[in-house]
Amino acid sequence: MDATQIRSLRSLLDGYLANFDDCFGRCDTRAHLPVYVRGQLSDLPRKSVEPMALAADVPPRTLQQFLALLDWDQRRLVDRVQELVAREHGSSHAVGIIDESGCPKKGDKTPGVQRQYCGATGKIENCVVSVHLGYAVDDFHCLLDNELYLPESWASDRERCRPAGIPDEVGYRPKWKIALDLYDRAVGNGVRFPWLTFDEWYGSKREFLRELQRREQRYVAEVPVTFMGWTKPPRLVPRGRSLRAQRAPSRVADLLQYSPTLREAPWQRFRVKDGQKGPMIWEVKHVRFHMVTEDGDPSRPMHLIVARNVLRPEEVKYFVSNAPLDTRLETLLLVAFSRWHIERCFEDEKTELGFDHYEGRNYTGLIRHQALTAVTHLFLARVREQWRGEKPRADRLPGSDRRGGPSAIVVARTDDGSTTAGTHRPEDHVPTATECQSPGEPHEADTAKTSRVRHTTHRLATVSMG
Q1: How far apart are CA 265 and CA 443, in angstroms?
Q2: Where are the domains of the chain?
Q3: Secondary structure (3-state) at 118
Q4: Could you tell me if 100 and 62 are in contact, meaning their C-beta atoms sit under 8 angstroms apart?
Q5: What per-residue confidence (pLDDT) applies to 408?
Q6: What pLDDT, on a 0 to 100 scale, did the predictor assign at position 36?
Q7: What pTM does this model have?
Q8: What would the DSSP string read from start to end of 128-195?
Q9: Phi and psi at residue 50, in whole multiples of 5°?
């Protein structure tokens, strides 16, 4: 970023924020938007309301009222974020990512706060949790929407909810239902997700997978070791007035150890991506799979992918996908390992934009703060996209017609004769590159805890607007 670009940031920001003018009924209310966004873009160590207001030479009470009391439409604000992403970053190889994030809090007054698992610290502690929908295509990624998770302890205590400003119609909903609503709203605003991915907590919810299938949404879901199914569909035999599977389903961890189909499937070595500590090399088995449905019956044929970290063989991940059976394994792996995009969004919003710095005790103020942070983050993502120049792009996925862009994973023969795969760049220094040797369909034999991977990407820089 040179001096000319820095000087142009203010006009770029003003033009960008004009997209949200109709979210505010009064011009004096609208005038608070650039104050808040510039505060989040500043180099203030703490980006809560008071320091941002003082830095902008406005009374803190004014900015507090902007969040909690003044009349404006934060839902339309988020809709506009999604419309901009759909219009300017729509792609046939985009990936939607569902995840949740926790923000540690003290006391018991912040809406939704209780002792629960906090992803930011990796342990049970006092925090608020929100469910998020992310979007990634090439080097671009952003958060499209989020919603506060209201625990049952809050939803059942309306006397506690009212002082926090939580409307009576806002109650407890399972996180997977919140995620589904986020997805439906984004699709309603024109966002298209050729692929969707999420971690094993969401992957374990068969109701969630069923609803995605009903929406004809392709996904690659990480699943827990206890996920049940068959590598070969069982016979259905009469039982009462219905047909039931003759053989009981097995856990995917047991299938890996005992199923002839999985045991005979070859391990294929892939270079998934370059991480902070070097190339990420995973060995993969890929077979057909029938998960057990809510009725206890086998599902339609799916993909089952077992990935084992070469450097830490005890680290094993399991993925299932409802993609067509002729989908390339490389494509499925790229979707499966795309969650780092949303993890980077969380990190950027918390370390650079003050997502977790909100100190109020008002429900409306909290959700508006989160919506405004999404607006600010999208501005940074757009500027980076515009100014990055002709640099090598990140991993790309084939489009829905399987012709949309070059293959993102190439297979290279190493010195010991094994194969690796990764994004092909000159700095990889691989000896040769060949076509992928893996079959288009999963292996079909004739015989009958998750860790977050941190990857190297370009961090969104904090820009001081003052």
Answers
A1: 6
A2: 3-198+341-387, 207-332+409-428
A3: strand
A4: no
A5: 36
A6: 96
A7: 0.84
A8: EEEEEEEEEETTEEEEEEEEE---HHHHT-HHHHGGGT--TT-----HHHHHHHHHHHHHHTT---SE
A9: -60, -55
